[in-house]
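[09:14] KT: can someone run the structure on this one? pasting the chain below
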Amino acid sequence: MDLRRTTILLFHMSLCLLYSSLQAQDILPLATNRPSFSATTYTLQPGNIQFEGGYQREHISGEITHTLPVTEVHLGLREGTEGSLIWSGMQLRDRTSAFSDITLTVKQRLIGMPSYHVSLQGLLTLPTGNRWATRNRLTPAVALIWDYSFTPSFTTFGTAILIGSETPGADAALGLAFPLASQFSAFVEYYVQMSGDATYHTADAGLLLLLSPDVQLDLNGGINLTHTGHFYAGVGIAYRIRKAK
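[09:31] RB: done, structure tokens below
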């Protein structure tokens, strides 16, 4: 009788372990837009929602700007398609405040191979902000986003963005992501922003801590290579809500 009970117990434990393994395989890795300049190529599974937010402190020639909550809300629309709302929030500078514009985006995965991915993203910035934090006009843009894993641990990523406005512009970024420990990873990135006759070069980096399959913390910072005395630092969190099956 004891042997039979032991056999039944081991059988049930095996089923539980198998079920947990299958569930884990069904959970895609958490991929976030923040805190890098380049967005991720990954799209949420249909019905999943992901919140990203944080705080940024920026120094420009001695003047400090605080920005929060630096919010992004992403929704998986269908397989390979994701819609997003991006709002930097309120900017506080020298005892005055300004509200940022809202950007709506749709991202479509074009290529999804084991070692590389390519996505196309359309963006439309609405002039909902005020003072220095608004473009004062509708601003469309289109972004090509890519990544390539040349080893299981190291991944290059980047983006190219064309911005349409009265003064057309373009942005480009190139970065490298790599693991540090079991739950820690990091990235370094270089990006350039061009608008009219002005060009700005920036280098940034970040540390990521994966607390669970659906929660990530980050610490990031960057320095403007074009203008001395222009740098920033920030912290943030990302949280994914998976659709109940």
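[09:33] KT: thanks! Residues 44 and 76 are 5 Å apart (CA to CA).
[09:34] RB: yep, looked fine to me
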